[in-house]
Amino acid sequence: MLIGTDKVVSIDYTLTDDAGDVLDTSAGEAPLLYLHGADNIVPGLERALDGKTTGDEVDVVVEPEDGYGEYVAELVSVVNRDMFEGMDELEVGMEFEAETPDGEGQIVTVVEVDGDDVTIDGNHPLAGERLHFRVTVVDVRDATADELAHGHPHGDDDDHEH
Length: 162
Ligand code: ZN
Hints:
Blueprint: E1 7-16, E2 22-25, E3 32-35, H1 43-49, E4 57-62, E5 76-80, E6 95-99, E7 105-114, E8 117-121, E9 131-142, H2 145-150
Antiparallel strand pairs: 1-2, 1-3, 1-9, 4-9, 5-8, 6-7, 7-8
The protein binds zinc ion.
């Protein structure tokens, strides 16, 4: 079966940066499952896997615009600690969901805490990075009606409720 829209695909993958450092990998874990055509993975990788099949190995370099986006300096801002009322501790690396002006949810990361000044960054941690994926296709199957309705694959466990 070939990878295409509405297929559930299992992949083993290793993601490295330009320096060859491993950013993420499925090695030692279960393969990653995703629903093709549903924006579950970055566009550049999804495109590279289109038409591939079980056993295929894919090496692809994904530019930031087809990955996690360019790094946008305007997404970094300094806010007052008051914004985080109810939080006992604020630490660099903490992530929050914020709402953008157009009502979209966006993950922001605390990158600096200086007294009452808290610097937050709305860029994805891998924004601006060129992504080097080495992928092996483990399995391709049709998505179930449930998976298509949810927009993501379901694993083997039956306790999936949402
Ligand atoms: Zn679901």
